[in-house]
Amino acid sequence: MDRFVSFLKEAWAELKKVTWPSRKQVMYATLTVIVVVMLVSVYLGLVDMFCTWFMGILMR
Considering the entire predicted model, what is its pTM? Predict the structure, then answer.
């Protein structure tokens, strides 16, 4: 039990050393991730449609 308590104290001490991002930074990073995911999804969807169309032509 002492090791667990020691671990928690050390973890808490390390968390106090962390420089946490501001709310604005988190929102900007989140928005960036969402936009990039959407762009990659659209790109992959278009590539998939093209490949499906092209394979359909080859199979005729």
Answer: 0.69
Q: Which single residue is written with the structure tokens 């900007």?
A: 28
| DSSP conformation class of 22 | P
**What single letter denotes the amino acid at residue 59?**
M
Tell me which amino acid residue 3 is: R
3-state helix, strand, coil in the chain (%, to 5): 90, 0, 10
**What does the pLDDT look like over 19-59, one tens digit per residue?**
999 999 999 999 999 999 999 999 999 999 999 999 999 99
Under 8 Å between Cβ of 21 and 29: yes
Cα–Cα distance for residue pair 43/46, rounded to 1 Å: 5
